[in-house]
Amino acid sequence: MESSQNSFATASSKTGTITKRQHRRAMSLARRRLVARIRRLASALLVGLAVFSALQCVMATVHTQPMLVTTTHVSRGERLQAAHLSTISVPVHPSFDQAPATPEDVESAIALVDMPAGTLILASHIRGRPVPPDGSTVIETLLASHPDGMDAGDTIDVIVGQSCPAIGYANAEPTEANDREAPYPPDETGTQPSASQPAQSSAPPDSTLDQQCVIASQATVITVPSDDAPPGVDSKTSIAMRPQEALALMRLPDGLPVIAARHQTS
Predict the structure, then answer these.
(1) For residues 238 and 144, what is the distance between their CA atoms, to the nearest angstrom?
(2) Which run of H or of E encompasses 140?
(3) Residues 146, 260: contact at Cβ < 8 Å?
């Protein structure tokens, strides 16, 4: 009986020893796996740090400059605001020499092209805020027609659908455009008749040339009506012109069509 108990104790001791060994072996394997995992993670971090340091060294040798980029879509003719823009750094390039660098440089400037989000803003993409020329006055005019894509800052001619004499307007520059008043043809002696003589024009009485007058030349568009204006709302265009031209335009009869045309430079 006593020998059986000794045998059982010896077997239990051996079993406990084996279990402890297996436990230590399992713990050692888990520890080795953890160490290997930590080593791999450390290696990845060291490689990333090395790449980052190399990129920093490369960037340090490349000169950069600040530039503006659009964060939202900006349509042609729209005024730029700080909310439309963000500042980024780009490598220095001669084509960027005149590019604006801060939002203050383009505040209220006018977009000359459509600029989707992410577009770098160049000097050729924008136009400065239009300023009325010295000696001019700004009036609001309801245009019956205007050129496609007319934007603030454009130079235009303002034309009314009536001859200059009919509206009592004397042209300051009668020889500049032939659509202000039909010229007098020479008579049989080759001389020009005086203004008091009746005109013997070969054009028909209802010729288009006799029914239009350039009432304002080289006028500057200050603001254009918004395309989002509700239907039926009178959308007027603000135009800077000479005071005498503005007075003549304000004296026009109601209902007389007024159109704008891009100014033709000689």
Answers:
(1) 14
(2) strand 137-141
(3) yes
Of 73, 235, 33, 261, residue with least CA distance to 160: 261
Nearest to 150 by CA among 265, 259, 266: 259
Tokens of 246: 């503005």
pLDDT band at 158; cut points 50, 70, 90:
very high
Provide CB contacts within 8 A for 63, sequence distance 6+.
91, 92
> Do residues 265 and 156 touch, judged by C-beta distance below 8 A?
no
Q: Which residue is associated with the tokens 């279990």?
A: 19
Q: Between the CA atoms of 11, 15, 21 and 23, what dihedral angle is there, to the nearest 10 degrees? A: -160
Residue pair 258/160 in contact (Cβ under 8 Å)? The answer is: yes
Which residues make Cβ contacts (< 8 Å) with residue 70, sequence separation at least 6? Answer: 84, 85, 86, 115, 116, 117, 118, 119, 121
Tell me whether residue 241 is exposed, middle or buried, using C-beta atoms within 10 angstroms of its C-beta: 0 to 12, 13 to 18, 19 or more: buried
HEC-encoded secondary structure of 205-262:
CCCHHHHCEEEEEEEEEEECCCCCCCCCCCCCEEEEECHHHHHHHHCCCCCCCEEEEE
**What span, in angstroms and rounded, lies between the C-alpha atoms of 178 and 162?**
14
Residue whose entry in the numeric block shows the structure tokens 């005149």:
98
Q: Is the pTM of this model over 0.90?
A: no
Closest C-alpha to 159, from 216, 201, 113: 216
Which amino acid, 141? T
pLDDT tens digit string along 40-67? 888 888 888 888 888 777 666 778 889 9
